[in-house]
Target: S-adenosyl-L-methionine-dependent methyltransferase
Amino acid sequence: MSVPTSTIPKRAHSTSPPPPAVAAAASTTSQPAVKRAKIEGDDTPSAAQPELAAPAVIEALAAVANGEGAVKSQGEQKKEQANKGRKGKGKKNAKGKAPKPGGVEEAGAFDVVEFLGAERVKALEESERNWKKESETEWGFGANGKDIEVRIVGMNSHGDGLGLLTLSGETQPTRLISVPFALPTELVTVHVARHEPDFLMSHGDLVAIIEPSERRKATAEELAGRAEPSEELKAVQQKFGDRVQCKYFGLCSGCQYQPLSYDDQLTLKQNVVRKAFANFSLLDPSLVPAIGPTLPSPLQYGYRTKLTPHFQVPPAHGKSGGKKSQWKGKGKGVEAPQPTEPVEEKEWEVTIGFEQKGRKRILDIEECVIATKVINDAMTIEREKVKANIGNYKRGATLLLRDSLPPRPEGTVKDPSGAPSTEAHVCIQDHHATVREQVGNVEFEQIAGSFFQNNNSILPSLLSYIADAVRPVGAPPRDPNVKSYLVDAYCGSGLFAISLADQFDRIEGVEIDKQSVQWAKKNAEFNKAKGRGEIGFRAGNAEAIFDTIEFPPDQTTILIDPPRKGCDDLFLSQLLAFNPATIIYVSCNVHTQARDIGWVIRESEKKAAGTGKKGFWIESVRAADLFANTHHAEGVAVLRREL
Ligand SMILES: C[S@@+](CC[C@H](N)C(=O)[O-])C[C@H]1O[C@@H](n2cnc3c(N)ncnc32)[C@H](O)[C@@H]1O
Model:
């Protein structure tokens, strides 16, 4: 079923695959051949990442500004302006790294354009002045950064407040500053931490909220029945508002949305999706439907079924020893002992937890309020063990804590009633041990070290939403006389394929991790029942599925759930060549999702030209709140084509 690579339309970008949109603006024309992206891990940007600021784009902006060149869509123009706001330096940033697709840098460039205005960005970039240097002189940075008052004018897609900075002598803003934990409209005191070299953005630490937003005020109803907060938590609530449930709020980089009502959080995520499609899809706004309301999580605290706290060891213990900032009771600038010096254990602060916001420092976290109780109980014990034995560790490590049903005795047959399990949960810490979860009436097992969605509470409603989305809006229920097929691409241990098996006659899943595939097969076997589709899984790169499936495209749904970096170009090209009736794209990175979908829509439109039929269109997009209280949004988009 696969098409020869020579016939595959390349996604527009300069050295490598995915569109994004970015480069597409500048280059729907000549692009060099695309190297196949190598997948190394969920979050590892491969060499074949999209790049933001190709110089060609910068030049194209000048042409657009001068009224030259082809007429560009609103999306294309915005993208070019954003690139301008990021001051193109080729594919790498000042640290020599390509920006993470859909990460803070990429999205930040759009914020700069949105809040400073495209004209202002253009004027600043065209000036010969060194804005970064001047900003450093005026506001300092790091330990020498000044504390300044800033009015927060917006919020970025990563949950940080945004304010405008204006250099002395200037009448209009010269930079945007991100301020974690601050909310729009607030007047805050900010300690200036650093200034981006590549785009007009600075970063600060929140010192004090001078004029707090009304949005922080909890209603009596929200507070009813809450336990008396500890003194530590009271102090945090005093600063950030009484909805906050975590004593590490304001330091931990985890759950920025805690001060907000849950409705407010859901609306913010809807807006994050809206911005992602407006900025990254490169589609004309008329092609993006109104973003649907965010699918809520039944649990907003105590829902996370996996935590991975880490710790470091004192420098003298090993090569990968801890950082100066981990030395207890020492102020700024106090040196930690050098590796050759004897280490006094009492001076070393063993911190086990998560990274502090804006610092390369591990915070000591005793409890994580979004994790399940089983995980928190196990974390207490594991922390004590690590602290007691820190001298025995040669290097730092990451602990694994996964909430699981107890192991299933050999030979267990599935309870056909599918009743919710009443077994007491356990915490699994061995990467190679088996974890077990129940989702609706389906059970999954897999090894603890591999991927599974971390919020079990929302999975039944997410799956039911997807099951409904398989058929077009208003279409009658599934006709048993018309066969239907599903491809579950990036399938993990089979969550979607197996849960949706009632909806299809045949299903094929593909996944790169061989162990997950083995578990997917076992899970399909365990949950097998009359009336459920026949399921097969194969290990390999997602695009490999197109080599084997013989499903009729008009009766096939392809469900995609890739890692954060999005789909490889080869996969998207093969997807387009296969031309399924429906595409359901689920993603924990709405920016790369919007980028990939934009490309599919544009390319399918080209492909459909002259056939008398329409290419793919976006039927619906919304977020599902798999990560309540954090800024993360899981995007769910449904694409349909004319049959
Ligand atoms: C976000 S997870 C989704 C897993 C599954 N759909 C679920 O919900 O449990 C992404 C999965 O894609 C897999 N993966 C990463 N790159 C891949 C590739 N090139 N081809 C196939 N699978 C890949 C990862 O191993 C991971 O299991």
Remarks:
- The mean pLDDT is 83.
- DSSP finds 16 helices and 20 strands in the chain.
- The radius of gyration is 26 Å.
- The CA atoms of residues 121 and 434 lie 53 Å apart.
